[in-house]
Prior knowledge:
The complex is a heterodimer of chains A (524) and B (307). Chain A has 524 residues and is α+β, with helices and mostly antiparallel strands.
Amino acid sequence: MLHKSRLALLGAVMSLLIVVIPSLAQSPDDTTLVIAQSVDVGGLEPSVVGSRAEANIFGHMFGTLYEITEDGSINPYLAQSYTVSEDGTEWSFTLNEGLTCHDGAPLTADDVVYTFQRAADPANAFTGNTVGFVMPSVGYVDARVDSDLVATIITSRYQSIGLGLLAEVYIHCRESYEGKSLEEAAQNPVGSGPYRFVEWVPDDYVLIERVEGFNLTPANFERIYWRVIPEASTRVAELIAGNVDIIANVPADQIPAIDASGGATVKAVQGTRRMYVGFQFSEEFADSPGWDAIQNRDVRVALQYAIDVPTICVTLLGTECERASSMVNPPNNNPNLTAYPYDPVRAGELLDAAGYPADANGVRFEITLMGPRGRYLNDANVVQAIAQYLTDVGVVTTVDIRDWSSDYVPLVRQKQVGPLFFLGTGGGTWNALYDMADLSAPDAGTNYTNWQNEEWFTLWNSLGGIREPEAEREVINQMLEIFYNDPPWLLLYFQPDFYGVSNRIDWQPRRDEKLIVKAATLSQ
Amino acid sequence: MADASITRLNAEALAPQVSEWRRAWRSLLKARWPILGLVILGIMAFLSVFGPAIAPRDPNRQTLVERLLPPMQTDAEGQVKYPLGTDGMGRDLLSRMIYGARISLLVGFAAVAIGGLLGITLGIVAGFLGGYVDDIIMRVADIQLAFHFILLTIMVLVVLGAGIGNLVIVLGVGQWVTYARIARGQTISIRAKEYVEAARSMGATSREIIWRAILPNIMSPLIVIASFNVASVILAEASLSYLGLGVPEDIPTWGKILAESRDQLLAGKWWLAVFPGIAIMLTVLSLNILGDWLRDFLDPRLRGSRS
C-alpha cells in the first residue's frame, strides 16, 4: 500500500516537472518580448522609482507629460503642448483629449495635479526620482487645475531643464489611487501608458501587456516579460539559448561568446551614466576610519590621481573610455577642465602635503569603500580595482560589497553609504544642468555625499533667474570648476553599455540607458 | 576503592592502544586508498599552515593588465610567472588556491570541532540524565532538524553578516544535532552496561563515569561521523561562498574562487573553475575515503576481515 502511494507521489512529481520544466525554458513566441535585467524592482509605486531597472518598466506602464528622445529633443506625450509663465515659475500643460488610465478612469488635469501633490505629500514619505531628484531640481511648489485639460505646475524659480525634469514624472489617476493604502498601491499599479501591469513575481519577473487603443506611442509586442537574472553569465546563457531577447550589462569577457552564438549579437553604446566614488561628508560617519582624511579637500584631489581609469575601462569594461573631467556628460562639460591623469607619484606628494605621510609600512590611513554587486557593468570588480589603486598610494582600502536591491539601494537612499562608496547616476546629453541637478540642494535626495559647498549651491540658485543660454553656460562652467577643485566625487567614467540582443529582434539601444522597447519589432 | 577500580579499567583500556596504532598502520597499508587520502590531506594541511611562506605572490595583489592569463603561459623571457594562470582581476591563481586551502580547512575543522563539542556534550548530558533534560535537548534538536541546513545558515549569515568567525560558528552550530543524537544513543546504551553499574556501586561520581567510562567508549562512531562531516562542511563553505555569503572579499577561499569563475566559463577561461573544483573534490574525496576506512577499522564486527 505504502509502496503504491510512493509510486503515485513520484508519478505526480514527475508529471509536474514534465509540465513545468519546458514552460520555464520556453522560447518567447512572436507576440512576446523577454528582457532580462540584473536587478528586480523594489516595488511598483510610480512615485518611488529609484533605479533604472524600475524606470525601464514604469516607462512602459505610465505615460509622462512629455518624453525625452535619445537625441535630446523633448516631445509631447500625454500633454500636447505647454506654456511657461513670464517669470518662468508656472508650467501649464494641455493634455490630449480622451486619455484614460488602465482601469478606465478618465485622465484629466486633476489627475496630473494629483500625481504631483501625492508625490510631494510628506505623509507618504516617498523617496526616489520624483521626490528626491525632480522636485528639488525644479523647485516644485504646488500644482493646480486650470481646466479639465490644463494643469499647471508651480515652481519657485525658472529652470531651463524644467520641462525635461517634469517629463520624468509618471502620471497616474486620482480615481485609481485615492483610497488605496501605500502597500496596495505598490503591489497593483494602475498605469496610463501603452502597457498595463499583469503580474509581478518578486525576484523572477514583471509581466506587462499591451493596452489596445493606446495610440500615443507604438507598442509592437503584446506582452513584455521583464525577467530578473542577477548573474551576468546566466543572462548570457539565457540569451544564447533563445529564452531571452534583450539583456543589459553584458560583461566584456562574454561578448565574443554571444557574437559567436549565431542567435544574438552585442550592441555597444557609450552610455551617459556617471560612475564615481562618493566621498561621504555626513558626520554620521565621523567614527569611520579615514572619514577625517577625506574631509580635507587636498586629500580628495590627491586621490583623483591615484586611479588608473583608462586601464579599468580597457580591462574590466572591455572598451576604451575617457576619464570624466566633471559630473557632466560631454559635450556639455566645461571645456577648460582636463580629466585628472593617473599619477600615483603626484597622489603621494599631494597626500604628503595634505598631512598624510606614509608610515614605515607605507600606510597613510585606512578607509572602507562600499559598492554594489550586480547593478553596474562589472561593478564588484571595478570596486576591487579602485581599492587596489588606493591601497597602492598608501590609503589602505577595505571593500564592502553589498547586494544591490536588498542592501545597497536602501542605504544609498538614506545616504548611509560611506565613507567611500561606488555609485553611478543616470545622465543625459540634452542639457548640462540635468547632470548637475544631482546636487540641486544640500538636502536633495540625490546629494548622496551630503556635499555642502556653499558657493556651488548659491550659484545653482542663481541659475533660476537666468533665461539666456550664454549667461547660463558661464555659471555652469564656474560651478563645474568648483566641483573639480573641491570634489565630492572621485571622478571615474561614463559607463559604456553593452546589450545582448537576439537576432529575432530589431531594436537599438539608447545612450541614456533607458531600455525602451515600445518600438522594437521582430526582425524581417 | 572506587578510584582503584577505575584506574585498573583505564589501564586495561590503554594497554591495547599501543597495538591499536600498529594495527591501524597495518590496516592503512593494506587498504592503500586511505594512504592516498592521508597524503592529500597532509599536503593540504601543509599548505594551510605554511601558505604565506609558500605562496609565490600576495593572493590579493591585482595586476589588471595581466588578467585572465592561462596556466603555464611564458612571458617575454620564457619564464612562467603564473603556473595556474590569473583570474579576472589579474591575481595569481596559485597563491589564491594556497591561501584558499587554509580557509577551507580552517572552516571545515573548526566548525566540526564546535559542532562536535557542543553536540557530544549535550548528547551525553541528555543520554546520561534522561528525563526532562533529555526531552528538552532532543526537542531542540528536532526543531533544528526541521530547517534545511543551508537555508538556516543563509538566514543566520544574512542577519549576523558574512565573515569567517560567523561562518565557522554557524556551520558548527548547524552540526551539533548529528553528534548529539549519536552521543545520546551511545550513552544510553553504555549507561546500562554492567561495568558502569559496577563503577557507580563502587562510588564513582557521574563526572568520573562520563569521563572515564562513557566518553572513551562512544568516541569511535563520533570520530567517523566527524571525518565525513569535515567534508560536508567544506562543501557547505564552498556553497555559501559561491552564493556570496561566505567570507569577506579580500579572503580567498576555494568556493569563492569558484564563484568568481562563473562569469568567465562561457568565455572559455576553464582554469578558474577547474583548479578550485579539483582542490575541493580531492579534499572531500580524501576525507570520505578516510572516513570509510575509519568506520571499518573501528567496527569490531569487521575486525580481522579488512585489517
